[in-house]
Amino acid sequence: MNHFNIKTGYNHSMKTLKVFNIVLILAMSLGMNAQDTSARKKSVNQPATKDSVTEFPRFRLIKKHDVLGASRLNSVEDMGIFEGKKTDLVLPDKFPVNLSTNNARQVFSRVVGLNIWENDGAGLQMSIGGRGLDPNRSSNFNVRQNGYDISADALGYPESYYTPPMEAVGKIQVVRGASSLQYGTQFGGLVNFIMREPVKDRTFSVTARQTLGSFGFYNAFTSMSGTKGKFSYYVFGQYKKMDGWRPNSSLNNTTFYANFNYQISQKSILKFDYTRTNYLSQQPGGLSDAMFNSDPRQSNRERNWFDVNWNLFALHFNHKFSINSEFNLRVFALLAHRYSVGFRPLRVSTIDNGSERDLIKGNFKNLGLEARYLKHYKLFNKSSIVLTGIRIYNGYNHSVQGLGSKGSDANFNFVESEHSIGSDYEFPNFNASAFAENILHLSSRFSITPGLRFEYIQTNAKGYYKTVQYDLAGNVISSTRTDENRNNPRHFVIAGLGLSYKPNKKLELYGNITQNYRSITFSDMRISNPSQVIDPNLKDEKGHSLDFGFRTSNSRTISFDISAFVVNYNNRIGEIQAYDQFNKIYRLRTNIGRSSMKGIETYLETDILRLLRLYNSKMQLSYYINAAYIHARYVSSELNGVAGKYVEFVPDMNLKTGLSFAFNKFRFSTQLTYLTQQYTDASNAVDGGVSGVVGIIPSYYVADASLSYKFKRLVIELSTNNLTNNMYFTRRATGYPGPGILPSDGRSFFVTLGYSL
After folding, report:
1. Chain segment 250-296, per-residue pLDDT in tens
2. What mean pLDDT is predicted for residues 562-578?
3. CB 137 within 8 A of CB 521
4. Is the distance from CB of 277 to CB of 244 less than 8 angstroms?
5. For residues 79 and 76, what is the distance between their CA atoms, to the nearest angstrom?
6. How many Cβ atoms are within 10 Å of 251's Cβ, its own excluded?
7. 410 lies in a domain?
């Protein structure tokens, strides 16, 4: 196996990490083989009983999350190790937020430092980034549902076109980049949506929610759940539609989910999940800076459409060998497509001339397997735990781009012409990995968590593209076909180390350092974009992440998490303005260079009534502030004028703050979000020009408020998004659904009526 290499500038870190590798290998060997003699004799002479749990009290405590809004994952939870790591546990039901619209800035309000792009008013796609990572469809996070992948292709095309409805989500696990070695190599970390569990005390339960909102918004959500003997189930259906804040932005969406569980024995359970979602959305297109300043609600695109169909399958098998060891197997598959068609010239102010539209069709067929083994044991008379696992993943993506119809309907068929297909590529890829993490307690208060991950990746690209030249009348002058067949196998080992020190039950000091890796995607290899040129010699991205901080645990009065981080990012892929032989400006997507992101992330929340010693069991009043300050610059680059520039998608200040109040059955919350300005390319262009795809995203703030009241089986919820009706934008799209500036929605109101039986 080849050790992961990072170029000049990382020598000190690499020496440290090589030492970690040696420590890790020794620790894993000890963790798998060293057992306490008395514990071994006990397991032979008598079966495990509930009393034996006292051997490992640190890991067998009942899950108990903070009373305040901020919650964090336990040291061991859901077949994962989270000791000494920066984690967040999001509980969507904890406070009144707009769940029907999947409003990410409200759902993730207590997760520090997330940069959130707003794509549509219905929340069909989630786009989050952080610490200088591109938020586009959360492609720098490993996004999962119930522990399995839901993105188009975890390696080849890690973009999330499906986001689970928040009304069906029980909790969301967020594990940051320096903490997610067991889930992959990515810089961002993990976002895992865990769906609601079946009710245990009834054979049948139903929940129905109806939401009406501004701009023709309507959402209907119905779920059924129950348990009968060894069998349990949770099923929901959702229908969503809206006309949109801007013209030409209507959409329709349906989602169905079914979870069936069979308790084979007290030690074994079999689970099956099926998810189907499809939506058709009209896309109003992007704007230039001048168009946005004139009227952010305008649209000059009537023929742009986007269609998604997502089918997810997952089979889970859980088995407990004993009170101290358990096994999980997940087999999952994806059958899906994403189609887009539209008129999208480089000059976004150009009036649609009714010509053939640009059509891109992507089909995905993926199959994966992940197996995990978790074992509690004693080492040198100290309780410890080891997690080992393997992952095998096979992805197949077929992407075709060419000319679509001249009509205005959602027609995703290519025109019948010998020049209609501009490119046709197959992108098969294969990934095999093995990972291990081990919590080792050096004392009752201090632990280390070393980890290793071996990766084998093989990506392929086979197909062709055409170069077509036209005369001024639009007639074809020449057409040249270029065939390609690229194969890129590689393998490496990455390492990580976590530290945790708990001086008392209320406080923890933690730290984590992990190597990261991100392979080039198939859209980096071959997607024709009128506003972009792709460097054919792109290289994979490499680097490492470091976290260090201190936080409270199980606090009812004051909760805080204050940490510092460093992300060193080599071969960073980004975009920069360049000039062709005719001195015309174009956007080049290439390896920009090495960037460094450093920052401080702080979260503080207090129960005001407890703080003032006015605690009332029927009333709660809490205030939180969530702030991140980030210094992000390009350290070195082979491109002129890049070193010293700001890293794109990084606001210097990212602030979220809010107030929550509850009295009996009444709940109220309000939130303010503020981000300073940020650049969208490595050249730090200020003006977007005719395309609107580069330039500054100005600083903005947005306020939201929600309230709910529950009466027996009924609940009514009222909410408003963008209370002050600010005109702002969070994104400059390089392709679909742009190109250009995508304005965020203005003030909107929503009312939800829910019933549970």
Report:
1. 999 999 999 999 999 999 999 999 999 999 999 999 999 999 999 99
2. 87
3. no
4. no
5. 7
6. 20
7. yes
Yes or no: say if 195 and 450 are a contact pair by the CB < 8 Å rule: no
Domain that holds residue 596: 11-756
CA angle 743, 748, 754 (to 5 degrees): 130
Residue 210 inside a domain? The answer is yes
Q: Could you tell me the CATH number of the domain that includes residue 612?
A: 2.40.170.20
Task: Please state, rounded to an integer, the average pLDDT across all residues of the chain.
Answer: 86
pTM above 0.70, yes or no: yes
Q: Provide the β-strand partners of residue 546.
A: 513, 566
- Whether omega before 450 lies within 30 degrees of 0, making that bond cis, reads no
pLDDT for 27 beyond 50: no
- CA-CA-CA-CA torsion sign (169, 171, 177, 181): negative
Peptide linkage before 737 cis (omega within 30 of 0): yes
In a domain, 679, yes or no: yes
- The residue-averaged pLDDT of 163-173 equals 95
**pLDDT digits 0-9 by tens, 447-482:** 999 999 999 999 888 999 887 776 666 677 777 888
The secondary structure of residue 42, as a DSSP letter, is H
For 637-757, strand residue ranges (E) read 653-663, 666-675, 678-679, 696-697, 700-711, 714-721, 729-733, 740-743, 748-756
Strands 619-636 and 421-441, by their bridges, are: unpaired
For residues 218-237, average pLDDT: 97
Do 721 and 746 touch, CB atoms closer than 8 A? Answer: no
Band the pLDDT of 529: cuts 50, 70, 90.
Answer: low
Is 2 contained in some domain?
no
Q: Which residues contact 471 (CB under 8 A, 6 or more apart)?
A: 477
Number of domains in the chain: 1
